[in-house]
Give the backbone structure.
Amino acid sequence: MIKTLSRSQTSGKLFLKFFLLFFLLFQVLNVGAKDNRGKKGAPEPDLKVGERLYYGLISMGEEANACASCHTYYTADTINWNPSALEMAVVASEMDLATFKSHLLEPSGGVREKVHANYSLSDEQLFHLHGYLKELAVDGVPEKALSINTILIFLLLGVAMAIALVDLFFTKKIPYKVIHILIILFGLSYQGKVVAHQMIDLGRSHEYMPDQPIKFSHQVHAGDNKIDCMYCHSNAEHGKSAGIPSAGLCMNCHMVVRNGTNSGQFEIAKVVDAYENNKDIEWVRIHNLPDHVYFNHSQHVNAGQLDCAECHGKVEEMHILKQENDLSMGWCLDCHKTTNVNFLGNDYYKVYEQLHKDIEAGVRDSIKAADIGANDCMKCHH
Amino acid sequence: MEEKTYVSGYFPDDKDLIVAIKELQEKNVDIADVRTPFPVHGLDKVLKYRRSRLPRAGFVAGVIGCAIGFGFQAWVFTQAWPLNFGGKPFMSVPSFIPVTFELTVLFAAFALVFGFLISSKLGPGSDNIIYDEGVTDDRFQILLEVKNANGDALQESLQSVGALGVQLHEVKS
Amino acid sequence: MYVSPVREPLISGEKSYSKVTKDIYAPMEGKPGKLWYAGLTAALIALMFGGYSIFVTVWDGIGTWGLNRTIGWGWGITNFVWWVGIGHAGTFISAILLLFRQKWRTSINRSAEAMTIIAVMCAGLFPLIHMGRLPLGFFIFPYPNTRDVWVNFNSPLLWDVFAISTYLTVSVLFWYMGLIPDIGTIRDKLVPGIKKKIYSALSFGWTGSARHWARHESMSLILAGLAAPLVLSVHTIVSFDFATSVIPGWHTTIFPPYFVSGAVFSGFAMVLTLMIITRKAINLESYITKAHLESMNKIIIATGSIVGIAYITELFIAWYSGVVYEQYAFVNRAFGPYWWAYWIMMTCNVITPQLFWFKKIRRSFAATFVISIFVNIGMWFERFVIIVTSLHRDFLPSSWSMYTPTWVEVGIYVGTFGLFFTLFFLFIRFFPVIAIAEVKSVLKTSAEKFIKKGK
Amino acid sequence: MKQYWKSIEDLVPAEEIEQEKKSSMVLSEGKESSGNSRRDFLKYFGFGIASAAVLAGCERPVKKAIPLLIQPEEIKPGTANYYASAFYDGTEMVPILVKVRDGRPIKIEGNDLCELTGGSTSARIQASLLNLYDESRPAQPMHNDTAITWEQVDADMLKLMAEWDVSKEFVILTPTVLSPSTQKLIADFKAKYSFVVHETFDAISYSAIREAFEKSYGEALIPSYRFDKAKLVIGFNADFLGTWLQPVAFSRQYAMARKLTGGQREMMRHLQFETTMSLTGSNADERVPIAAADEAHYVSALYAALASKAGVSVPVVTIPDVVNKIAEELWSNKGASLVVSGTNDVDIQSLICGINELLQNTGTTVVVDTPVHLFKGDDKAYSALLSRMEKGKVGAAMFWNTNPLYHAPMGGQTEKALASVPVKIAVNSQQTETAQLCDYSLPTPHFLESWDDAVLIDGVYSLTQPAIRPIFKTRQAQENLMAWAGFDGKYYDYIKLYWKENVYNMSLSQGKQFETFWKTSLRDGLVVDENIQKSKVAFSGSDFGSIASAYSAPKSGNELELLMYQNVPIGDGTLANNPWLQELPDPVSRICWDNYVAVSPALAALRGWTQGDLLSINDVELPVVVQPGQARNSLAIALGYGRTNAGRVATDLGKDVYPFVAMNNGHRQYYLEEVKAVATGGTYELAATQSHHSMEGRALVRETTIAEYLKNPASGNEMHEKFNEINTSLYSEHEYNGHHWGMVIDLNSCIGCNACVVACSAENNVPVVGRNEVRRSHEMHWLRLDRYYAGDTDNPEVVRQPVMCQHCDSAPCENVCPVAATNHSSEGINQMAYNRCIGTRYCNNNCPYKVRRFNWYDYTGADTIPNNTVDPAGMTLDLKRMVLNPDVTVRAKGVIEKCSMCVQRIQDKKLTAKRDGRELEDGEIKTACQQTCPADAITFGDTNDPNSKVSKLMADARQYGLLEELHTLPSVVYLSKVRNKDKNKTLS
């Protein structure tokens, strides 16, 4: 199940890559034209050439992969354990050309040695590539292009419907009115669907799956190594938010574990660096609720004794964490309507005398969360 | 494509029209259509049109609207999410009356109007043929369909009952 | 059909069917006059001012209005109720008078209905813009959503949503179905061209076929049967906004009939105001005659008197109830800080229409024009008195306060006049002001002199 | 694009985080902008998760979450911690608890370990929290308007001290120092530098009381007053419930002595003689308006009347009838009565001593052997200091949280004196007028950022601890002294050492080691040493007779006199730059954002003045407020306004009348015997929250007299039974399984101090709207104190009623909301979902109590439309927004809001009980208003629980619902007011 899912995603990704490549090629040509006019005298790296090299548009040797194929711009969708383009650029920009060359062409150890073995780059090419990476480290990764298909189809349908209407009333070129009607019906239903979906998605982030500063894999930690959720997110037991573990907590293990299952030393080194050099790690929040919603983890995890997976899904199977549920109000309410309360096991609920009597009398066999006011507005909106 | 031929003639007054129709009916001439600038009283009886079924359509739609209106409100308040508003019971029937009534009227009105338009084949884009633009002004027109190439006979019979401007129209439909 | 010989003709002058068409089509022919342009420009300026005021309201907040913690509704809802009231005349004339087979309605029903629709549109604007969060106004519709929240069917404001939108829809349907034959007439008057094509499409392919007429008549009658209770329901439900509340001065069981008659009262007054100008402006004197005037004014006396009785009943019940809050509310209306509003209301609504008992007055266009404006002013103040005066001093004296409108509220009100007249000017320019077919159908019985052949 | 936040996670924009990454955990001195240093504390103090909203177009915002690098065990993101501390602003000292959430102090509560205050606070204490986030606080050390570093300050000062001319004084001017550590530090400092002189200056002077006690008891002291032990209290212009001495403690004692719940059948009786209607006077059972000039006469007469009963020499004083009656009453309550005066006049205060002595109150209600250490400032010493300054004997002066230029300008003398001091140092946490004249401004942190200790009464020690790291580059004044004297360590170490050496002893710590004792003391915030030696003070007597005979006849004539008083919100004006306080309506006039001239109705009618007419009073122009109950020819103006350098909010609000305060007999006298008042013809619109003052004969506040009450507890409330009988409903009532929350408000206890209003604002993020909006009746308070006058306008009776959402079980508002934004919860709460509200205001119209509040404008910056805020008090600044409670939604423009019965607190405590698997205890949940109420007038609880306190109170015969005849079935219930008077005892 999961495999097929990822395959279909890969094919989608492939298409996107081609598209992106094509798009970038176009852009590269443009950028090159602009940036070529360097000052005379001091040699200036040709950024265009550098970028082309990075994308593998200029050959770097037999069977040599493009830099961009391993050190991608964006990590989302599928996990790529290699350092990202930006991270590479930051590292490279701190090196002089010679070090850069030796790191690139004669790396030591592990996968890197094998993959980088086939590269043959001239010093000039290296100079350009280095220049490009330096530039990239400053400018950052270009923004992802937005998908405009939906908007395009939406607008085209609008035009088609307008034409159909005009033809229906005035020009009357098409003899069969069925065609007009079909066009309008199809257009309206498609547009309606798009609008409805857009409206539902407004402020929602179902399946949100952003890049994180560190390629932390829940699959490796919670899945393979079976670390309990509460070890890191202990605050879920007694606080409002589950909390993101401090770097100090990471170091409990990573004092020793310095070599990652998939990522080598690079990712773990970031945690160590943050811990040792007092740097913050800026995680990207995935599960966000609107400001007017009050949600308390301890209510659900501790008092309600819910399993984390009920809301967060099978986190232990996610390399890149994503938002499993849409976290909509309807989703909350539905769960409240169907989830049993640990009614007899918690003395707090003694206050519901009538319900206890009902259970004794057999009128009810269970108490749902909604029966004791879980769906009151002010339980979450105050 | 089929071709049809009609003969038309008009009268300047509604009384003349009714007299003429009766005369034509006596002659067993089938009247295809009568077109008038305003609803001529009693014309439908003369032409022996059966009573319109629109009222029935309106009634059925009204009943549906009523049921939907009441049912939906009752469902929302008792099944979907029963909320306590001002201590009223969830099934607070008096509160449902206005919306139920409005929906009844709305559904019935839509049924009537669309029933009328559809049964009369009227609507935006409808390309009914106007044989005489005076019909919407002051002419009371009779249309006779030419079958079996009896066009001349029909023209004559029309003229004989006093119709003015008797003409032949060929129509592709 | 039997016509009482005593009845005076409804249509004056010598008329033939063709003359009727010509007369009514005349204002749509050729280029519009300077007066029309001037009127439209003035209306558009007012509309733009209103638009700007609405912008200020939405951008800065309802705080730009003169409302406060005690008085949550002021001019906005006053104007809403006022416009809705005005929007009662058209459908009343076309539906209820149709059911009662009043022939005099034929000359005025078309424009009255148009006025109804425009007035309801103006009215509908207020509940929208008086919302604190207009962009979220769609919450008021019971549409399926991922929050699983529906609406509160107990709320009179929600009933309003259904009532007003149903009323507007049904009124538009009724009006437009009536218009179809007349648009056909216009279409056939036009020379071929784009204009003709547009009218052709708008006429829905009307042919005047006897079958169509038969169905049309049947539909109109049933629709009138539906619209009649609908008209009564709309202001009933608007009155529920107040009647179902607890505020002294609002919580009154006589509100539904009182509001409905008040609505018809103000609606007729507005129709008169407009028709008196329109008949002069576009030369329809022979179609809108003193006979029409008199019939309308009789209804004004009737409804005005009902309103007057309602006022007195309210006072009596307040006294009779023995409830201090009720008693205070009515004393406060008459003698509190807003006493002037109450007495303007009393004068304009109860006293002035009684002048129509004099035949001379009720048959005078000039007098009717003045009185109709008085009635409209009075009816506006009635709503102001009910809303503001009741709210500003309710149960707890600690919260009592005063209300003064700001320029923004006035601007929006002016803007609705702009909208009203803009649409009305467009209407008289592009659509026949009088129902041509209906006038023709009563021409023989009601015209002063009928000419069989006009040409 | 918008960026609103509810939890701390969303607070800090990404750019700032970016900058912060580079800075270390310690505050870096080099940074200039206050915005940056603000961030530091967030990180230091358990700033759990900071996230940033970066909006690109309409894309979903990327929210960053930054965990702490190393998480301290006690700090849990999203969970509040409470730290015990103490409030002292130079007036009252109250032990408090500070609620700290994610590193930000967001609420102040009273410390319920304190017997005196019982965990209650006042409006000003509640509001003092907001001064912490005041953006106009002095942010860093300055020398003549140039920023300098603390090292430079120390270098300059050491140089100054080294080169000191010993013939001159280095004056340290402080308010009364309650801190024994600071006292010792100053002593040490003086020991190091012999030329240092420490002077005490209080913003409001009470020096006459001390002098009077010195004359009569041989020691300049202010005794502990025990209102709770008194059966009869007579006040002379003493606003002891509002501003006089220790209002929180006195309010509590007063309310306890007047409660009729829990089986108490006796009630203290309170009579008040006063010039203007004060909060205290409005609570009195009977009240006599007197001119300020006649107060001495009335006191003398009372002395004379009592002297004749006691058989001591009787001075020749004409005794008014009313005084005779009172003397009678007092005499019959000998030993259980209390007479106090708020006038700073030695003669009056001496006579008061004499009266209390005659009544044998000393030891019971006037406890002289446990004096309070408040208000030790001596006006005579202050005058002497000024003249020394003028003579050039003072080389440097350090104004340590004192503002003499504003509080005691002395007709320009203070300014002149200051001009002749070569080096002037301002050491304040707030901007002051005096600081403007100073060469150095060395800002101190807010008290919530400071360490300190205090001794209010011998043996009662309190600790002040910081709840947050200093936001600005400030340093405690004590640390200044330590640095300049070359003492090692921080002030914290100094306090700890002092405690180790002076406070700690084995019996006090129950045998524990000092570290343990220190930690428990810090945790508790206060330590009471029962065994401390009490000072022995004995009455030595004074010639009261001759003092009294000097006032044998009333003085007042037809001239107008002027009384300067402190009002409840602003007090002496020290905390004036506080939007919550400025927006708080005066409990008597219900006017906010301004001061005004209170005039009597008779005078107003005579002169044709009406509210808002501008009067020129000795060239100060202020608008008129017609104040029922004011003495006929007296005018009254509140102090604390007209600040010229107080910060954004308070500067130029109202007019300053401190310049009218002059020395009389060596004490600052807060009234002028004769003023000219001329109407200028202009008018001014005051921001009044109530414009109608009569109940119009409606049974809103139901009251009875004690005699009637004792006969029939339901007296005055008879209609309750009747309404209960006739009220029926078509519908059956909903069942409330589990809890049904309810509240009882005892109108007999409520004194109307308005502390609850500020507490509510702080807890529930209630917006501040500003003067102009209040004028338009747009105020937002969820809870208000309605005040009605009854009877004679010259001396009316006053009733008060706190009104918040009544949480009706058949609520008119719920029915009419078209979008179901407000409905009833399964626990009986009238709930309001702000995010669902579309703002039709229908609910507000249909609310008979008018407790719903509409967000007319964007007051909070939570609106989607940019740049349209109405924010006169800077409440939308990032800094001030830190005071917001993250558990309560910040409401956007266009929505209705109202009291939620502190549902966030209910939910929190319920959750705690659930997590612990135990039943919820009665009284565990306290609403913000209830928690702060010094009078314990508010009780909250579960009405479904027959044993809860609230259920028991609801069975009281005095119980009724406001407007219960409407059958709204409110969950908030009132207990009727009882006045301790009857026909036999009526004064007039």
Residues 40 and 425 of chain C are 6 Å apart (CA to CA). DSSP finds 16 helices and two strands in chain C.
